[in-house]
Design goal:
This protein is α+β, with helices and mostly antiparallel strands and about 160 residues long. Helix content is about 55%, strand content about 10%.
């Protein structure tokens, strides 16, 4: 199986774009709005609130610790997973949807990895609620791009038999 230049370019463009949107959103929250942990700003009443939190663990604060070892392991894991996904995409037959999804995942993983290295934790600030049900968790754009990328991979038609 050859290398797909199309997939490589697509992955790189999408990864850089999703990483950039994540960085911009976090800089907006941290620098422009200057939110500090616990600060909350209701953006769309009853639906979207910006609630600044630092996540020292993985999703939903699992394995939370402010230790440098966990931070380093999680940052390295983001890089290793990104490299593996990039190689997978490069060796995959030309497929724009697949490459787009991989780019979303890589951009999100590197966005959160960047936070861990620069801030010591991941900046989370999006809190979405609906229908009067309170949501105690916050997330960020990188989390959204990772989720969307994985969902696209799971929901897209199988490429069995692709050459």
């Amino acid at each position: 199986m050859g290398i797909s230049a199309f997939n490589i370019v697509t992955v790189l463009i999408v990864a850089v774009a999703s990483w950039g949107v994540d960085r911009f959103s976090k800089l907006h929250i941290l620098e422009t709005m200057a939110l500090r942990p616990g600060d909350a700003v209701e953006m769309i009443p009853g639906i979207l609130t910006f609630v600044m939190t630092w996540n020292y663990g993985i999703n939903f604060g699992i394995l939370a610790s402010d230790g440098g070892l966990l931070r380093t392991i999680l940052s390295l894991l983001a890089v290793v997973v990104s490299i593996v996904l990039f190689i997978w995409a490069a060796r995959h037959p030309r497929d724009g949807i697949f490459a787009f999804a991989i780019g979303l995942i890589i951009g999100g993983a590197l966005g959160n990895g960047y936070d861990r290295q620069v801030y010591g934790a991941v900046a989370d600030f999006l809190n979405v609620t609906c229908c009067g049900i309170g949501n105690p968790f916050a997330f960020n754009i990188a989390d959204v791009t990772i989720f969307l990328g994985v969902a696209i991979l799971l929901l897209r038609p199988s490429d069995e038999g692709a050459t």
